[in-house]
């Protein structure tokens, strides 16, 4: 009799354990109750917002990345262009979307560590409103001129600007972008003047440069690649410690005798960010995938061919780096003459 009672007791325990497991499984299957939101993420297309016009680096960096992420997840990554106001329109658009990881922003340097100082009336606080998914690439900048000008060196450009006494023009994809600020920093470092002409995107700016609407620009290689190859634009120097592999004949600013520009003009970079309140599991799932695809030989080659340098970073240290960089830019912007 005793053995029978023990056996029944053990059987009851096993039934209760199985029942509890079934109840937990059922609860976790309910919407919003999963402890791993990344298990099925993404189960619908992910939209990457580009806060600038089509063409050039702004478009190609996320598009090439999106192609690889689509293969990684088996889910579509759609590029959405929301240009205007130095990237503010695209940033605001992201803030008005659900914080579910299905809309993210391809952000440049100015979107995260500069615009809050340039446009204080916008009450933008990107370091509090956004969180980085991963840093993608750094963009060494080229100092380029319209090829019809008799300017073949950085020294000759500086001399030309001094003769023009403020009558020359330089272009950028939009007011407040790093090419705009880099041009202003070049003028400050060389004690020269020129008029800033903002365009609606990198493609439009480069077209204007090739047509002679502006005389020079400080921009990434990918934006001017076609114009360089056609001979309508000439590269004078690269703002980087080493020459670009895609332009081995173009000297660095140090080699051109203007090494102080290397310290004056920081790198531009691109980063994928989400709303701050996006579920951590989804941010981590996307971050892990981005870091993985940034190692694929095809994407590495595509970025290098575009004059970009892989700069894969993620995690809490990246947020701290952004805060430090914001402080540097806040100091740089003080006293900088900007034609907005």
TrEMBL record:
Superkingdom of the source species: Bacteria
Signal peptide limits: 1-37
Pfam families: TctC
InterPro entries membership: BUG, Bug_dom1
Record's keyword terms, sorted: Signal
Family: Belongs to the UPF0065 (bug) family.
The name this protein goes by in its record: Tripartite tricarboxylate transporter substrate binding protein
Species, as recorded: Alcaligenes faecalis
Organism phylogeny: Bacteria, Pseudomonadati, Pseudomonadota, Betaproteobacteria, Burkholderiales
